[in-house]
Amino acid sequence: MSSSVEVQKLLSNGDDDESSYFPYIEFSESNLVDFQRAAAAAFASMSLNHTGKTLVLQKGGIKSILQLCNHSDLTISRDAVFSIANFVASPDLCQYVVKEGGIETIKIVVSANTNVEVLRDASRALSSLSTDDATKGIMVSQEIPKVLCKLAKRPDNSTQRFAALALCNLCSGTREQKELVVKQGVLRVLLFLLRFPDLEVERCASLAIAGLSLGSDRNKAEVIDNGFVRPLIDTITYPDLRMRQCALLALNGISLGEVAETKECAVKENGLSPILDLVKSDDDESIHAGLYMLGTLAENDEIRDTLVAMDCLQLIVNKSSTGSIEIKRAAAYFLSLLSECPEYHDDIQLFGGLESVVALSSLVDDECQDYGAFTLAFLADNKSFQVPLVKMGGVRPLVSMMETSSQARHFAALGKLSTLAADMFCTFIYNTNTYNIPLSYTWLLALLKLADNFDNHVSIAEEGGINALLRLGKNKTTSDTVNYQASITVSRLAKHAAGKSALGNKHNE
Length: 509
Prior knowledge:
Layout: H1 5-12, H2 24-28, H3 33-46, H4 50-58, H5 62-69, H6 74-88, H7 94-99, H8 102-112, H9 116-129, H10 133-141, H11 144-152, H12 157-170, H13 175-183, H14 186-194, H15 199-213, H16 217-225, H17 229-235, H18 241-255, H19 260-268, H20 272-279, H21 284-297, H22 301-309, H23 313-322, H24 325-339, H25 345-350, H26 353-361, H27 366-380, H28 383-391, H29 395-404, H30 419-432, H31 442-450, H32 457-462, H33 465-474, H34 480-508
């Protein structure tokens, strides 16, 4: 009867004081196994729908179910664990199971059982619990990763999948949690799962490595030492698109950061060619992930030289003009890294990079604008590029940024990819910024460098640059340095215009 939603609604309408409306808790506490089996079966039926779950919660039945989970009778234990797995599948009910000691109960169930169905539902319950951020810390502190490692090695395919998913979720917690997860010995099991024939399991293992690597240099070193780079590089050649994307995300997680060894490991394992092959594919997600990886690796000077020698620049310029907005962002980041080095400027011009940078700066996307402004500032420092950039329309996007930008956008885009990139740009702009302009006004720095060339003054005026500079100079919210440089630039433009006018009058006389 308890499996019927209509009966469940009738039971919910009863008063809590009338035990006759909900006898299952009393049944679960009976000394007779048959009554306990009936209670466990009823709880399992009610856990199949939200009405039944709410009823059990209102009547205080979760504690009774957890007590039945470790029953010596297999039928009772199986139904009880099945019920808990169904309960925690609802995110709003997880906290009630955790408060009643559900995590510790499942841990005991796994250690005391070999039944396939019990372990399958136990791993399913843990995979659902691991999605809650507050619960992750509790699970890690109670050494649930060790339990999941045991479940991941079970022969049952569903148990492996749920365990791998739970491990993946736990590996995306805080840095302290991630490092504690590694200490519990999960890397050896993840390496086993990464070579498993089940693609779902392999994907979870790749994402788990990505989670462990992000934000922890200690974990990255452990991952590299345990030999994960080679299997991940092999994985990005798989025909399965999602598998390739997960593996690339893991490689990016390993490579991000200031430690040179984390980037060099991909090169040592001959990973550059497979990554470039992905960028040449027709799948947008693979192209984006590949470009993102190339940008991560290009933060290393030696690797950047190697990539340029592999003729990847033409490929990246082409992708920046035809790809999705995510691809354009990744391409813009790579071009900004190359433009930092004057020795690459001729290559950028040769392969149409100047036009691409201007086009990226003209997009409405904030991230592309930020990267474009940085790149234009680098390229405009090259005197031979100042006039061509203006003729290509490089002033208009900079003026637009002057009219719409604010200091609140300072490095907002860079933070999405890499702290190292922000530090690198800070250092370069600081060293080359002869105007002492705050870093949040890189677009102004680019415009001022273009204004160094007198041949650009008319174009700057025609694109509204003078009006924008005047408004910026009178803006009380900007720094004194910015106001001063804006005023000086307007003065230089006016002086040049006056000089040309006097020259013309003299010629007429």
